[in-house]
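mind reviewing this stuff:

——
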Amino acid sequence: MTTIYKILRRDEWLAAQKSGAFEGSAVDHRDGYIHFSTAEQARETAQKHFHGQADLVVLEVDVAPLGAALKWEPSRGGALFPHLYGTLATAHVRVVHEAPLGAAGVPVVNFLEPR
């Protein structure tokens, strides 16, 4: 089983729960897909894109139900990142983790272990 992760604001997740689907953040809409990270990539994503942001959560999602809408595409550095071309049904979220700010202003995602 392959697991991917989505870091987002708590209010975005609460809105998704009400509607039954997460349609993406402002950055996702700009880029045309929902950005995800693997366990190995999530810490760097938290540091690079969410530094100083409080009240975040991390969605844990199994890739299997996402089907062909999930594409693995290279980043500027060449690493493959999972991108979802479509919405994420909240039913596909297995676990929601807290991501509190650490002392250095980086969201803490220490629960992540490479899978």
Observations:
- The first strand starts at residue 3 and ends at 9.
- The beta strands are 3-9, 21-22, 34-35, 56-62, 70-74, 80-84, 88-89, 93-99.
